[in-house]
Structures are given as C-alpha cells and as structure tokens.
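In the design runs reported in the main text, the only information available to the sequence generator was the tokenized backbone. The following block is the verbatim input for one such run; it is reproduced so that readers can re-run the procedure and compare outputs position by position.
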C-alpha cells in the first residue's frame, strides 16, 4: 500500500447520505471497533471517579466550602451540552465518528496539560477552567461513543452492548477513588498537589497516544442512511416526523438530565456523607477521615460496577425496558432512607442506590435513540447533552448540605430520581413509546443474512489497523 493510499484510507470525512454494510454488521464484524471505542468508556469513568475524590481533596487543601467545591462538577458537566449540542455534534454530523473521537481526545489531553500550572499556582478557578476543557473533550467522546456502541452491531443487542461497554466505565470509577485514597490523602498538602499534577500529565500522554491509534485504525462509519435503513427494516421508524416532533427523544434527554444530576450529586458528596454519618474517633484528622471515605467511595463505585453485569444478565432474558424500570425504581426506594438513617445503615443505602444506578445512563441512551433513523446523530447530542444535570444538581445538593448537613441534602437527588422515573414508566405503559422499543428488540438485522444490496463501488475497512488485507471490506451503495 502506497503512502497516498494509506492517507486516503484514513480520511476523517464520511458521506452521510449513503448506506453502507455498517447498517447490518454482525457480532463478529463489530467486535474490533467496539473494543477500541470501549477504551474511551474507561477513560471518562476514571476521570469522573477522580473528580469525586478531588472534590473532597480541594475542600481540605484549599479550605473551600462544599458548595464552592461543586464548581468542579459544574465545570465538568457544564461543558457537556456545549460539546454534545455544539462543536462535537457538528463534527459528528459533517465528518463522522472517528473524527469526533480524535477531537475529543485532543481536548482531553490539552485540558490535562493545562491542569498542571493551575495546580502549581493552587488556583481552584484555574483548575476549574482545565476541568471545563476536559469536560468538552469527554463530552465530545460521549457524543460519539454512546451512539456508536448502540448502532455498531445487531440492533437487537444494543442495550446489552452499551451496558457491557459502560462496565469498563464503572471499573474506571472504582480505580480512581482507590488511587486518590493513596495518592491525595496520605501525604502533606504540597506532596498531594504534586501527585495530582503527575496524574494529569500521565492522562495527557495516554490520550494523545490513543488519538493516534484512532487515526491509524479504520473503523466503520455508520451513516444517517444506515440508521434510516435500520429503522425502516425494523418497522420502528419515527424519522418520518421532523426532528422537533421527536417527543420521545426529548423525554429521554429530560430523564438523562435528572438521572445524571442525581447520580453525580450522590457520588460527589459521598465522602462528605461518610464524614457526617459514621462514628469517628474525635482524634481522627480530617485527612484520615477523607482517606477512609475515599476507600468507602471506591466500594460504592464497585457496587455500581457490579450492577452492570447483573443488569446485562437480566436483559438477556427480559425486555430491557422492564429491567430499566426496575432499576430506576430501586434508586428512588433506597436513596430515600439515606436521608434519615445514620452510621453504616445510611451508607449502605447509598451503596445499594449506586448498584441500581448502574444501567440507567446507557439504557436511556440506547432506548432514547430507538427509531430516530436519519435523526440519530443529532438526537444523540440531546441525550448526551442531558448530562448537564451533573452541573445543576450538585450545587443544589451542596448548598443544602452546607445548611442542613449532607444526609438531609440527599432529598435533592431523591426528587430528581423521581422526575427521571417518568421516562421508564412511559416506556412500559405508553404504547407509542413501548412499541418502538420492542420493534428493535425483536429485529433480526445483523443476525440473519448478509449485507443485502451492497456493491463494490467504494471500499472502506471494518475492524482494521493499518488497513491490512485481512480486514473486512465495507462497500457503499451505488
């Protein structure tokens, strides 16, 4: 292969109006691209888990209030709609998934490098700016990765597929607090801040290398025409209506806003909650208590990570919408007692809540994009943009915690969980929601038959690195 052909195969521009075999990828054909994109899920799980630990770390080292420390979450999640509805969504619709992945990794790396001088200067505001840039990068990655995992492969297994990928997100959220407990809370303030610098430098190096790997890899670009084909073949097409009439999509985005806000608030103030409710020895230092709280947070995130395989197992035998309704309902049931209970009883209620939170985010993404067809890429931006709830609910929770204590502040995420519950209720009991979800669950696209009607006119590659001869060819329609 010549150098010119090598560059042509790595073009970041795709034609969105042509259907490709990517609409009917089998499990085998989708395995490599899904594995590559799943690495991204670990990245933002790690970043999110690190953020929850830094929330308490900066309260201790910089002497700021709980409400002010929520500025980290506000900067991080406030960037998501800017990416999901703005620059990242524009790149996704005009260039494609791979270009959006590379753009998101670039921003993530730049933000991580900017964090270095801000930490040196002990500037909380500057670090929030760095987190805002990182949030734009991660928002770009989520804008592309969540819909990509959902549509890359047989539609019948979309909910299972995205929950499997998000399992690695959960692993990242477990590792980050464990790292924080040993790196941030067992040293003096100056050493701990230097450790934060090295962590972000390592992140920057890794994501830049990963961006190069995405440029070298050739993965299938799933076009609007592909999604329209899937919606039509499954008889669940809702894309005959204008985008602004896709009320199911906007309901899913609202549910995502409420759910993510509640999830982030609970995780962000979990260490504060442990600090308030556990029976501590009066001689225990704040750093010691925060370090123990960080370990308990890692345990809670482990419960979150464990919930995903349990949910995936149940989805294999029951309709995903039923499992989604059950898990979201349990979030409401178990977070409520944490408001009044103290000690390990109250903390255990949050452990169980995190277990049931596990499948909610990815399942909202998968079910919310059902039947959107040609509106899929645009619609994914709205659902991912709902993540801005993580910038709204934690400050409300922080203010309530400053006034009435962290346990009482759990009433805020409880209210948002109740609002998020309206979407799974509609999915199960409103026919216009339920029928579209079930049509995709019953389709055999990507399971039976090959790539019907596809010719050899324009070639690409599925699942290849360096474009070798063993890669699976992708041809465009005439």
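Verbatim output:
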């Amino acid at each position: 292969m010549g150098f010119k052909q090598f560059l042509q195969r790595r073009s970041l521009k795709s034609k969105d109006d042509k259907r490709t075999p990517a609409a009917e990828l089998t499990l085998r054909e989708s395995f490599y691209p899904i594995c590559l994109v799943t690495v991204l899920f670990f990245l933002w799980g790690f970043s999110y888990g690190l953020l929850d630990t830094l929330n308490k770390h900066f309260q201790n080292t910089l002497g700021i209030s709980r409400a002010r420390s929520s500025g980290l979450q506000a900067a991080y999640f406030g960037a998501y709609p800017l990416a999901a509805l703005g620059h990242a969504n524009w790149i996704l619709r005009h260039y494609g998934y791979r270009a959006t992945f590379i753009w998101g990794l670039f921003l993530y790396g730049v933000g991580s490098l900017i964090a270095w001088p801000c930490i040196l200067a002990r500037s909380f505001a500057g670090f929030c700016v760095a987190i805002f840039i990182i949030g734009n990068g991660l928002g770009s990655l989520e804008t592309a990765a969540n819909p990509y995992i959902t549509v890359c492969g047989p539609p019948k297994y979309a909910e299972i597929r995205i929950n499997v990928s998000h399992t690695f997100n959960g692993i990242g959220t477990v590792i980050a607090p464990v790292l924080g407990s040993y790196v941030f809370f067992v040293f003096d303030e100056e050493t701990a801040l230097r450790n934060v610098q090295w962590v972000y430098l390592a992140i920057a190096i890794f994501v830049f290398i990963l961006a190069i790997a995405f440029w070298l890899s050739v993965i299938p670009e799933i076009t609007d025409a592909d999604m329209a084909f899937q919606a039509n073949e499954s008889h669940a097409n809702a894309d005959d209506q204008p985008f602004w009439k896709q009320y199911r999509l906007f309901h899913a985005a609202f549910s995502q806003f409420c759910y993510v806000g509640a999830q982030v608030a609970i995780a962000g103030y979990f260490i504060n909650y442990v600090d308030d409710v556990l029976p501590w020895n009066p001689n225990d230092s704040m750093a010691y208590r925060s370090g123990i709280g960080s370990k308990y947070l890692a345990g809670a995130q482990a419960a979150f990570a464990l919930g995903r395989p349990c949910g995936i197992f149940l989805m294999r035998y029951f309709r995903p919408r039923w499992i989604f309704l059950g898990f979201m309902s349990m979030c409401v049931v178990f977070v409520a007692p944490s408001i009044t209970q103290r000690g390990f009883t109250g903390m255990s209620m949050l452990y169980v809540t995190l277990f049931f939170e596990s499948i909610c985010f990815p399942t909202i993404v998968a079910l919310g994009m059902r039947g959107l067809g040609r509106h899929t890429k645009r619609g994914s931006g709205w659902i991912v943009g709902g993540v801005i709830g993580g910038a709204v609910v934690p400050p409300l929770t922080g203010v309530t915690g400053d006034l009435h204590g962290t346990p009482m502040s759990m009433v805020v995420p409880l209210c948002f969980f109740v609002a998020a519950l309206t979407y799974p209720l509609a999915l199960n009991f409103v026919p216009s929601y339920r029928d579209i979800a079930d049509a995709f669950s019953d389709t055999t696209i990507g399971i039976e038959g090959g790539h019907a009607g596809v010719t050899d006119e324009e070639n690409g590659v599925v699942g290849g690195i360096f474009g070798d001869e063993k890669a699976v060819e992708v041809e465009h329609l005439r």
